[in-house]
Amino acid sequence: MLKIYGSMLCKDCVACRQAYDQAGVAYEFLDFAVELTNLKEFLQLRDGCDVFAEAKDSGQIGIPCVVAENGDVILAWEALLPSKDQS
Predict the structure, then answer these.
(1) Which of 53, 65, 73, 78 has a CA 20 to 30 Å removed from the CA of 44?
(2) CA 53 from centroid of its chain's CA atoms
(3) Rounded-to-integer distance, Cα 44 and Cα 84, Å
(4) Domain ranges of the chain
(5) DSSP code string of 7-38
(6) What is the number of other CB atoms lying within 10 angstroms of the CB of residue 29?
(7) Do residues 81 and 20 lie in contact, with contact meaning Cβ atoms separated by under 8 Å?
(8) Residue pLDDT, tens place only, 11-43
């Protein structure tokens, strides 16, 4: 199952969840505005992963952040939506 780190205070995180829900994509949402343990996990991931370099350089947080079952960290969450041809 996918893990999504983010906050429901972020419009991009809300859009990600809505799109995944509509597409039937299974995920666990780890809201760090609600649970500080989730924030600590996210910061460890962000500090140790090159995927966040562009986001950090431009002053962004890097959410929503999706962690795939194989451990890949993905910021382009739209890429994980099933294609319309597969639906």
Answers:
(1) 78
(2) 15
(3) 35
(4) 2-80
(5) -TTSHHHHHHHHHHHHHT--EEEEETTT-HHH
(6) 18
(7) yes
(8) 999 999 999 999 999 999 999 999 999 999 999
Distance CA 83, CA 44 (A): 32
Rounded-to-integer distance, Cα 61 and Cα 6, Å: 9
Between CA 77 and CA 66 the distance in angstroms is 7
Question: Which amino acid, one-letter code, is at 39?
Answer: L
CA distance 1 to 49: 20
**22 contacts: CB under 8 Å, gap ≥ 6:** none
The confidence score (pLDDT) of residue 85 equals 60
Q: Which residue(s) pair with 4 in the sheet? A: 29, 66
Residue 20 CB-density burial (10 A; 0-12 exposed, 13-18 middle, 19+ buried): buried
Read off the tokens for 68. Answer: 């795939």
Q: Which helix (H) or strand (E) holds 66?
A: strand 65-67
